[in-house]
Amino acid sequence: MLVAVVVLLIICWAPILISNVLTSFDVLDRLNYGYLKPMRTAFHLLSYFNSCINPASTGSSVPTSGAVSRLRWPLFCAGSDRKSKGIGGLSRTGTTFDQLR
């Protein structure tokens, strides 16, 4: 499973990193016009996609200890589980950190 996480990381981050290296060596133009604008936008979206897919790729291999089950991680990330159980964010008392009472 670690190999799959590393492969996803490389697929998602390599295009923007290669584009940045080619831009710094003046192989690609620094300005975003023509084909460069959609290409760089797609590369940035790929790097954002890595952050979105990371909980699913790493969470599917980690055994659950009762905190978040594998099937409920999208709900946990969306915040619906946090509000019902008082996890993170604002609590019922209106404070941001329950531990600092």
Automatic annotation (TrEMBL):
PROSITE patterns referenced in this protein's UniProt entry, alphabetically: G_PROTEIN_RECEP_F1_2
The keyword S-adenosyl-L-methionine is assigned to this record: no
Domain G-protein coupled receptors family 1 profile: 1-58
GO cellular component: membrane
An example molecular function term from Gene Ontology annotations: G protein-coupled receptor activity
Alphabetically ordered keywords of this record: Membrane, Transmembrane, Transmembrane helix
Record's subcellular location: Membrane
Residues forming coiled coils: none
InterPro entries according to UniProt: GPCR_Rhodpsn, GPCR_Rhodpsn_7TM
Family: Belongs to the G-protein coupled receptor 1 family.
Protein name, as recorded: G-protein coupled receptors family 1 profile domain-containing protein
Top-level taxonomy: Eukaryota, Metazoa, Ecdysozoa, Arthropoda, Chelicerata
